[in-house]
What does this fold into?
Amino acid sequence: MSDHDKRISELEKQMFEVGGYTSSGNFGAFFGQDKKNPSDWETAAELLYWQTQAGGTEYAYSVAHLQPSGASFPLTGQVDQISFDWSLGFRIGAGRQHVVQDYDLFFMYTWYKTQAASGHKKELPSGFLGLTGFLDPALTTSSHYHLSYQNIDIEMGKNYYVSSRILVRSHIGLKLSRISQKQNSSYDFNVQTGELVSFSSHLRDYSKFLGIGPRIGVNSRWYITREFSLYNQMGISLLYGYFQVKDFYNADEEKIENSLLTTCTSEIDLTGFSHKFSPYGEMLLGLSWNRAFLQDKFVLTISLNYETLYFWRQIQKIVAEGSLRSTLSRSTFNSSRILFERQAEDIGFRGISLKIEMDF
It folds into this structure.
């Protein structure tokens, strides 16, 4: 073989080390891989500081004129709803590099819990109409909301250097989520108007979701310096899960008419079960610092991130449609029929997280 043929053969060998043929028969370059020790393990712990954004938390309608006999039209006022404060949570994870060829496998568990409360009081002629029951009139309202979120992510991904400073990681996996929500609302109407009128109602809405589905996403890291980098993460999932919804309503009414005490109590207890899809999306932006120790056998990474998680059609409720009390009597409505329907609202989490990763 001539020197010319040897040089061509050597060049072809080098080309196939950095590239290959695609499924369509075209030749293209490989992305550089993030090579590490095949025995590398990775652990992570995060402190979460999130705020919940939930739809359907309205519990009362504040009106300027409310009569003891019921609501009068037209109604003017504003809607009172639950606003969540910031709450703490955590996320932990562990994984290993090069489980299958150059792919890594990672497990993550997230726990977050929050609650919120709101309440108001008025005097006649102003008042409230309850929005979680049958538009019950009230002078005192209160509502408490409890929410818990737990999640497990299992993902397999692969890192590529698309340039000397940009690292991209694509991943696919499984997402398992459990979300529990409970809202308790109370309405009290007590006033002396020739006869003693005492009316109170209480409603408990409960929703529990357990779902599982595929999850795909992509991460990117831009190394500003050797130790500092900007980090981005995006992912989507389609969860198929089980919804359990409960709605309990209780109303107590006392009247003194002609020296006689009349007491009325009414209750509604409904439970619904269904299987539905719930789409999910996430986005994260962060700044990371990392440094290697012990001759690159141990790598410490600290990140400060901002992230957003969003679930569509996640808050499921049973609501009464077509009903309005025209008096305080438990059986008096200005509707010819009462319908109970499912209501679906979205829920999201947003906030910051402090993440510590250790590779060894």
